[in-house]
């Protein structure tokens, strides 16, 4: 099969070494103006922007190869199937799995975690068995376990966060114990940016005989993640936070864990045989992908992975660490601003969550938007973090590979103007 390349789409390979000007040219949306000001997009923790290469791949797939996958004997279906299935290997290579068969496509991190909660844990855990999470989890790594607790009598235990938003290993040791069956833990907090020492926690969990599910929604897009180094048994992440389309996610699992997991949904494609009496399951991973998968978006996700790997996730992390250092400095100078989360850049992902004295986070967000700066305001689907900080909400600026130091300067300037505006309004 030949997949013709589009002469108007810049070659991904040409982005190495990390060329920020060339990278930014790949993201046409960054040229937009908002309220008459150049867009400063600082909301990538919620969803990243997509480069032209990913947009072009989506169009090319629909234009040249589109047909339903797996069952067809005709050329288009065979091509579509090859393209779809080929992305499993790209994902495997990205995260260091043992086989592309360990890659399950879902609709996102939330769906991946729910698949583990209701496909693996529901059948295998009962009263007295413990699932350990932390206080800094996203709601999608809290609520499924609460459902399990309420339905199955599973005990939910929580590693508390320290005041600076980090997880204390001694506190973890007090929570992880002989009854722990699963540690479900984020690698990077979306609300605070905390980088969690997953390996150390995974070792504790494994010593207790438990499995480890890592929420990689905020780590896989931003830094090298290797499931073996991490000590993960299961890993969940979302394409839309890593240059890919919406509606695609991944659950990676070690094969023996996936073999002990039940499919959550029944239907086409996930079966080997069906009679009116009974059905038998297809092989892994197909048994977990009932119905027509989101094949076009998965194919374009493959291009997003190509893009990230061409840059190198180590280079992405280096770029973000530079931005984090700079962000800590310029935000530290804004009068009345309290920055939440760890002080040390190396213990942070590219997330700045802050409060501005006397101004509601939503007002901060709106005033920033009027100056072209796109940030998020709210509880960031992490209400327990907000409760621990003693606030209802924060304003969150988050960076990615296309952001620059001068955009963080623009944020800092816009915040000063915002503080002055509300200071003047209050005086
Ligand atoms: N986990 C973390 C740490 C996240 O940041 C998010 C999204 O913000 C999710 C899980 C949920 O991801 P999705 O909404 O793509 O399922």
Q: Which molecules are bound in this entry? A: pyridoxal-5'-phosphate
* Helix/strand/pairing category: alpha/beta
Mean pLDDT, rounded to whole units?
Answer: 95
Low-confidence stretches are none
Strand order of the largest sheet: 4-10-9-8-7-5-6
Largest sheet: 7 strands, mixed
Number of helices: 14
Write down the Rg.
22 Å
Strand content: 15-25%
How would you sum up the global shape? globular
Cα-to-Cα separation, first versus last residue: 69 Å
Number of strands: 17
Question: How would you characterize this protein structure?
Answer:
This protein is an alpha/beta fold and 427 residues long. The chain has 14 helices and 17 strands. The strands form 5 sheets. Strands 4-10-9-8-7-5-6 form a 7-stranded mixed beta sheet, sandwiched between helices. β5, α5 and β6 form a beta-alpha-beta unit. α3 crosses α10. The model has no long low-confidence stretch (mean pLDDT 95). The site of pyridoxal-5'-phosphate has 12 residues, from α4. Pyridoxal-5'-phosphate binds next to α4.
From the structure above, extract its key features.
7-stranded mixed β-sheet, 427 residues, binds pyridoxal-5'-phosphate, 39% helix, 4-stranded antiparallel β-sheet, 16% strand, alpha/beta
């Amino acid at each position: 099969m030949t997949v013709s390349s589009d002469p108007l789409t810049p070659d991904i390979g040409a982005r190495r070494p990390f060329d920020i000007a060339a990278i930014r040219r790949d993201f046409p949306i960054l040229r937009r103006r908002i309220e008459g000001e150049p867009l400063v997009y600082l909301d990538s923790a919620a969803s990243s922007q997509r480069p032209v290469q990913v947009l072009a791949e989506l169009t090319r797939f629909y234009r040249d190869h589109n047909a339903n996958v797996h069952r067809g004997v005709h050329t288009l279906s065979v091509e579509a199937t090859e393209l779809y299935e080929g992305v499993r290997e790209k994902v495997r290579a990205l995260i260091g799995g043992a086989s592309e068969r360990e890659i399950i496509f879902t609709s996102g991190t939330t769906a991946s975690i729910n698949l583990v909660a209701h496909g693996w844990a529901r059948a295998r855990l009962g009263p007295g068995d413990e699932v350990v999470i932390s206080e800094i989890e996203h709601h999608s790594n809290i609520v499924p376990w609460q459902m399990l607790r309420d339905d199955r009598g599973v005990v939910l235990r929580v590693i508390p966060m320290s005041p600076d938003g980090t997880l204390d290993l001694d506190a973890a040791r007090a929570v992880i114990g002989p009854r722990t069956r699963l540690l479900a833990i984020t690698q990077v907090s979306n609300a605070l940016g905390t980088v969690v020492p997953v390996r150390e926690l995974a070792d504790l969990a494994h010593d207790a005989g438990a499995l480890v599910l890592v929420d990689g929604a905020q780590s896989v897009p931003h830094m090298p993640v290797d499931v073996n180094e991490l000590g993960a048994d299961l890993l969940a992440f979302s394409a839309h936070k890593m240059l890919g389309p919406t509606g695609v996610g991944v659950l990676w699992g070690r094969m023996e864990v996936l073999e002990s997991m039940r499919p959550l949904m029944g239907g086409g494609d996930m079966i080997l045989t069906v009679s009116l009496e009974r059905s038998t399951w297809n092989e892994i991973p197909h048994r977990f992908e009932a119905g027509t998968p989101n094949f076009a978006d998965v194919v374009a996700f493959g291009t997003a992975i190509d893009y990230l790997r061409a840059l190198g996730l180590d280079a992405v992390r280096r770029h973000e660490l530079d931005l984090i250092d700079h962000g800590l400095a310029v935000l530290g100078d804004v009068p009345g601003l309290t920055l939440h989360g760890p002080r040390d850049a190396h213990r942070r992902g590219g997330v700045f969550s802050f409060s501005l004295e006397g101004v509601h986070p939503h007002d901060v967000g709106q005033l920033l938007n009027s100056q072209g700066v796109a940030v998020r305001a709210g509880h960031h689907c992490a209400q327990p973090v907000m409760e621990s900080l003693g606030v209802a909400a924060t304003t969150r600026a988050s960076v990615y590979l296309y952001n620059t130091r001068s955009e963080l300067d623009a944020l800092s300037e816009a915040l000063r103007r915002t503080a002055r505006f509300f200071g003047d309004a209050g005086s």
